[in-house]
Amino acid sequence: MPRVVPDQRSKFENEEFFRKLSRECEIKYTGFRDRPHEERQARFQNACRDGRSEVAFVATGTNLSLQFFPANLLGDQRQVPTREYVDFERETGKVYLKAP
């Protein structure tokens, strides 16, 4: 599958693979597996605040490298996500991510 498709919303809404991923399910952070749990938590939180993360959907084994906001062609820094997109306060022990 190509990294970018012309009509992303249509692809996401109509393809069975993406419909499975859109259901509420357990995901896990896949970065720094060799590090202690507390360090991994801190790295995950920092990465989310920076607008990126590596996660896996447990049920399907699908791994994704997320970039919440794309870099622009001029090489400027990525936009840092607000609480609207990365919400650590909604439910204790969880983070809610919203695609822009």
From TrEMBL:
Q: What is its main location?
A: nucleus
| Keyword field contains Iron | no
Q: Does the keyword Nucleus apply?
A: yes
Q: Where in the cell is it found?
A: Nucleus
What Pfam families is this protein classified in? Answer: CBF_beta
The GO cellular component terms are: core-binding factor complex
Q: Which family does it belong to?
A: Belongs to the CBF-beta family.
Please state what the protein is called: Core-binding factor subunit beta
Q: What organism is this sequence from?
A: Mugilogobius chulae
